[in-house]
Amino acid sequence: MKKRLFAVAFLLLLPAFARAEKMYITDRIEASVRSGKGLAAGSKYLDVVRTGDTVEVLVTEGEYAQVRMANGTEGWLHTRYLTATPPKSAGQSAIQADMNQQTANNKNDQDEIAKLREEKTGLETLRDQQAVKIRETEAAFEELKTGCADFTKMRAEIQKARQELESNKEIVAQLTKENDDLTQNTQQLMWFIFGAAAVLCGFIIGMWLQSLRSRRRPKISF
Length: 222
Known about the structure:
Blueprint: H1 2-17, E1 21-25, E2 30-34, E3 45-50, E4 54-61, E5 64-68, E6 74-78, E7 82-83, H2 88-216
């Protein structure tokens, strides 16, 4: 007895465990999805399905099927609204939706291409600006190198002039010393000449006085 009851319960629950079947709503209709079968007592309106909508059939009992909508709503629907193949209008709608999606994608691609072109233009402008800056920097560097070369040459010339100045200072000091020695020797020679001239003058004056004295003496005759 218990085995029979278990078998009956299993058969009753078997549809609930069966794999859900995907079906479509038939052409050009709108149908209500309700909490119960048809307009039975307590059956409430839950949602509406339209042509081309996809639902999952959970259980089929006679003329009604329990379905799950795309938004997750579960309820009962008459099987005459269901078809295993997409209706023509649904196919056309899908094609139109696909075309609209392709159009949107193309527009997005065109916008992306335009954006990329704009970015490319900006990058090219930035590249040109960087090239100008690089040329200016190279020119400034060359000018700096030239200036450094001139500065090095000038510094070498200044160093050479300093060495020549030091050498000239030594020569001037030597010439000054020689001039001082010569001046001193000249002064000594002048004093010698003055002394000699004084002695000579004294000698001449003495001779002259001696001569005068000799002339004034009377001559004695015998």
